[in-house]
């Protein structure tokens, strides 16, 4: 198989031949555990019993795997010893935010996005956090349901104020779903040693569209995260398109004007092709906070959970950086 090169909205990917024949979207579903987000609770005074209870409830919002939790809650005493990055984050907050921390702990929700960069999605009083819907919302529940039912990629569209652009983006996606499902073939050799599947989820090429309104009160945490990555385009009336696969991994946030048939095919070829680089951190994308207990849903309470990338490969694999030509 030749190299597959494609650029889109600042996203550059190289796919190389590898012994693993599992499609990227399926390998991610079974083996890539989501990256954690951080809830950093800044406080000046000792945390009260009721505040500790609130903090404890936040820690239960996401499932804990045999390893790091999908959501990490960190206490940071602004009057004591702080981690350097927490101190820097605290100092970057507005003065009015810092003054609020005198009376009640002040909270920042920080998530890891593309290429390891972290963004502050929200900040406010500790008492306001629970109502945010950090890990759960109707759209994310539906994404989880579809991915576990066998959808290869769920295309999330955040509708803009420009209805004609929304319609064009919708028509492009829907017209390409059937075309690409018929045109692209899954890799051969799935099920052979090194390419085993462990979950009962059907393996097929299936794509779907999920639309949400930017004004939807139940989706504000998700919307703020995604629109914050393409602020200028969204403010200019561009709907945003987000291909989601695996366990809620967003490949990119793409303004609709940056997507065409050729680029959509390139993205689909990459996600449907053999998982050439099994090390999650060397692949593009970032994880959305979703409250699904993926291991239990996929393999059952007592089922066999496949190991992620072997430690030896993590140590020896290095990303290959190539010059990417301009797209069509």
Layout of secondary structure:
Elements: E1 4-8, E2 11-15, H1 24-31, E3 37-43, H2 49-59, E4 71-77, H3 84-92, H4 95-100, E5 106-112, E6 118-125, H5 126-129, H6 138-149, E7 153-159, H7 163-183, E8 207-213, H8 220-227, H9 231-235, E9 240-245, E10 249-250, E11 254-255, H10 261-272, E12 286-287, H11 294-299, H12 311-316
Parallel strand pairs: 3-4, 7-8
Antiparallel strand pairs: 1-2, 3-5, 5-6, 7-9, 9-10, 9-11, 10-12
Helix pairs in contact: 7-10
Written overview of the protein:
With 328 residues, this protein is α+β, with helices and mostly antiparallel strands. It has two domains: 4-33 and 137-316, no CATH class; 37-132, Glutaredoxin. The protein contains twelve helices and twelve strands. Strands 7, 8, 9, 10, 11 and 12 form a six-stranded mixed beta sheet that branches. The model is unreliable at 1-10, 12-18 and 309-328 (pLDDT under 50).
């Amino acid at each position: 198989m030749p190299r597959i090169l494609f650029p889109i909205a600042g996203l550059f990917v190289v796919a190389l031949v590898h012994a693993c024949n599992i499609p990227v979207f399926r390998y991610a579903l079974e083996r890539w555990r989501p990256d954690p987000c951080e809830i950093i609770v800044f406080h000046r005074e000792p945390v009260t019993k009721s505040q500790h209870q609130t903090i404890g409830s936040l820690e239960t919002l996401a499932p804990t795997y045999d390893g790091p939790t999908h959501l990490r809650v960190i206490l940071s005493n602004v009057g004591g010893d702080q981690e350097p990055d927490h101190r820097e984050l605290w100092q970057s907050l507005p003065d009015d935010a810092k003054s609020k921390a005198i009376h009640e702990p002040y909270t920042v929700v920080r998530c890891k996005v593309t290429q390891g960069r972290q963004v502050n999605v929200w900040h406010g009083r500790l008492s306001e956090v629970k109502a945010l819907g950090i890990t759960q919302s109707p759209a994310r529940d539906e994404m989880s349901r579809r991915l576990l039912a066998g959808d290869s990629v769920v295309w999330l569209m955040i509708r803009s104020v420009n209805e004609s652009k929304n319609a064009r983006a919708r028509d492009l996606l829907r017209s390409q779903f059937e075309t690409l499902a018929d045109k692209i073939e899954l890799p051969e050799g799935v099920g052979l040693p090194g390419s085993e599947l462990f979950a009962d989820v059907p393996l097929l090429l299936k794509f779907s569209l999920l639309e949400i309104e930017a004004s939807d009160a139940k989706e504000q945490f998700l919307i703020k995260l995604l629109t914050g990555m393409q602020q200028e385009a969204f403010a200019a009336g561009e709907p945003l398109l987000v291909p989601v696969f695996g366990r809620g991994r967003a490949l990119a946030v793409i303004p609709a004007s940056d997507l065409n048939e050729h680029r959509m095919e390139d993205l689909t070829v990459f996600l449907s092709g053999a998982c050439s680089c099994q090390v999650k951190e060397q692949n593009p994308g970032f994880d959305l906070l979703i409250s699904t207990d993926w291991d239990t849903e996929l393999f059952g309470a007592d089922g066999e959970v496949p190991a992620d990338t072997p430690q030896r490969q993590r140590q020896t694999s290095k990303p290959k950086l190539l010059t990417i030509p301009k797209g069509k």
